[in-house]
Amino acid sequence: SVEGHPPDVVVSHANRLLMDMETDLFATCCYVDIDMEEGFAWCVRAGHLPPVLRHPDGRTEIAEAEGGPPLGVIRQSDFPMSPLRLQPGTMVALTTDGLVESPDIDIDEGMDRFARQLAAADPAHLEPVADALLGKAPRSDDVALLLVRYDGMAARPLRESWTVWRVPQAVGHARRFTRRTLRSWGVSENVDAALLVVSELVTNALVHTDGQVRLDLTLVNGRLRLAVADASPRTPVKPTSIGWEATGGRGILLVEAVSAAWGTLPVSGGKQVWAEFVLRH
After folding, report:
1. Largest interatomic CA distance in the chain
2. pTM, entire model
3. What CATH code is assigned to 7-150?
């Protein structure tokens, strides 16, 4: 998932992983990937119950999400993706059959009852909703419940990207792109520190990796993120000590010193190294 694969690929990989374990184990799964900006989600089911949506007007809907077999049963399986449209205020509920099925109630009747309980709930406070649902659950089977309320986004992120070419002036070009972008966004604080981070991250990617390098800038809710992606999966290591005569090796230490946070993420076989700044204005 963190590598950026779509939900159907993630579930297919999980299925192959369980098959390769060569055990009698299998698992069911419902995977929902929510795009917070667009109010849209993709759902993938592997032998699991579908999500239940509680819309802002109180209506509930058992999502019509086509599914595949449980994980670990059939190696070559299709796990189709189903779209879900989410309005701000929509609650998404995922559960297991232990909450909706019992010897006295079949699973369809139990899902209908679960949807009615969600319709009567107050979506403003999810913890009491979860307590009420779990408190009425039969204890003949394991029970799991996940509630998410989609509230939309108060501000849409600003994003720009730059492909870093392997030329002698590459770092300078990346700095100029960053300066122009921050100026166009009206960012005036932490500019020098941001340019230093761009210099260090881009230099590390060019010196220590092969292949394409990309610089991504994101600004949302007063947080500026600078991220450099490359084709190497190796995570940069922060040195524990550097001799006074060393001419390099301080890049990550500088990034850590001037930014509010930094880290790495695996991305499509490579990685992304990022740093964030908190802007006051």
Report:
1. 77
2. 0.71
3. 3.60.40.10
